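User: Hi! I'm working on a homework problem where we have to compare a predicted structure to a textbook description. Could you give me the structure for the chain below?
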Amino acid sequence: GRRVHRRHFLTAKILHEDLYYTLYSGGPARRSTRRIGTAGEYLWDRGDHYPWFVRSGFEFGATVTVLSEVLGSDQSASTGSAYWKKYRRVGERGNVFFRARAQRVFSGALDDFAVLIGGADSLRGYEDGQFRGRDAWNAGVEARAPFGHPVWKDRLLWGGAAFLDVGDAAFNALSKAGEWKMGGGVGLRADA
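Assistant: Happy to help. Predicted structure tokens:
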């Protein structure tokens, strides 16, 4: 059955990443980047969860990342992001899922640290990371309804979904309401 989650997490991390990029501009070239710094994350999750389907509840999270040349990073930068998710029960077995996320680059080279939106996790109907900027936000709503009962060892549940996503990313000022990017559709879901 049913599990009720009430979780709070506060995490501090030391970051040490060696990233290697291959650039294709008139022939392959290699560039490496070292990112060293700290990140702090907070997560608050409370919900009515079933093994195969989230029925009701919410989640909130925020992250701040600071990279420092003093610590050995190739560049200094600071970024922040926050998100909110809400699940609301509808009828006997369906639910509606709301989400919102905001991101900002406070300092650093925007070529390397621009925030990206587009794709399945932020703005469906567009390529992954199609829009970039210093600031970005996106929001969405999705109605979900399961078909029948769980199959395959009671872990897989098929269902239908209808969704609408909206968002924007910009380097200077975010767009006005009439210029936001939007994506919507219907589809099948498999929740495991």
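For your comparison, note the following. Residues 92 and 145 are 10 Å apart (CA to CA). The mean pLDDT is 79. Good luck with the assignment!
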